[in-house]
Design brief:
By secondary structure, the chain is α/β, with parallel strands linked by helices. About 40% of the residues lie in helices and about 20% in strands.
């Protein structure tokens, strides 16, 4: 029987639809165009947490830490304590491992992470330079850089200290060190904040440039020091935890959950306050004002 024009058109449309369905089916099976097979493989990969599995297999989370009291303090026996370790302790508890701190220095903390001397670096300032070598978790807190000066000095502002063109002591390799270099300040670079303070006492430097927490700790213990807060600020940084550059996405997600929960719950803020940390507006007599 001869087909009418309408019938031929109908069969043509049905044929096109069948071919389109077959192309979609086989294309999805092969995954050649990013279809079904490729999507399934991607989902499977995203479920893996290789870095977390490595830590769990070892049974211990190794944490690299440098001295920056009161947020992180390196004790005489080489172990570290402090409120900024709380998220890492919570993470370790969550995956069922112990935590082991590994003392290092600020100039070596990133290199130690790259050399697999520890799994994570604590209390680490986020910088572009460091981000080229490692990755950072979500932030745990932030702070300004401040000056520590002897109270019997004539320095009352950050600009006076910078304009003096005399050595300012700071920890070598730290983000604060980089900030002073950017400000073209005269520097005395040392290994610890305690040695920076000692340099001021010895007349080798006119000031220490340190994070607010460290400055509060030193000024509280040694009443001969006062804190000068630069206005405008010359340095404000966010602090996080450094992890290997090749950490998998799933492990990073799990670690960030521990960090975010520790911050959102107020646990870190309470621990900072208990350790004696103060915000700028609560420095009181510790601050030297013009």
């Amino acid at each position: 029987m001869a087909l009418t024009k309408q019938s031929r058109y109908t069969f043509y449309v049905i044929g096109v639809l069948v071919l389109a369905w077959l192309a979609g089916y086989f294309g999805g099976k092969t995954g050649s165009d990013g279809g079904s097979t490729q999507t399934v493989a991607s989902s499977g990969d995203s479920s893996k947490a290789a870095w977390v599995d490595k830590v769990k297999k070892a049974g211990v989370l190794r944490v690299g830490c440098a001295d920056a009291p009161p947020t992180v303090t390196v004790k005489a026996d080489g172990t570290c304590t402090g409120p900024d370790l709380i998220p890492l302790q919570n993470f370790a508890d969550g995956i069922g491992v112990k935590i082991k701190t590994v003392a290092t220095t600020w100039q070596n903390i990133v290199a130690g992470l790259q050399a697999d001397k520890y799994d994570v670096a604590a209390d680490l300032d986020q910088t572009v330079e460091r981000s080229l070598a490692i990755r950072f978790t979500n932030g745990s807190w932030s702070y300004p850089g401040v000056f520590l000066v002897e109270r019997d000095s004539d320095y009352t502002t950050g600009q006076q200290i910078l304009d003096a063109k005399k050595p300012i002591a700071t920890t070598q390799g730290s983000a604060l060190d980089a900030a002073l270099q950017q400000a073209k300040a005269e520097e005395l670079r040392v290994d610890t904040n305690q040695n920076a303070a000692a340099a001021v006492k010895a007349g080798k430097a006119i000031s220490v440039f340190a994070d607010l927490g460290t400055a509060v700790d030193i000024a509280t213990k040694d009443k001969s020091f006062g804190i000068v807060v630069p206005d405008p600020a010359i340095f404000v940084h966010h602090v996080a935890y450094g992890v290997p550059a090749d950490i998998d996405a799933r492990s990073m997600d799990i670690l960030n959950v521990a960090v975010d929960n520790s911050v959102a719950s107020g646990e870190i803020a309470r621990a900072f306050a208990d350790a004696g940390y103060r915000e700028v507006d609560a420095l009181g007599s510790l601050q030297i004002k013009p």
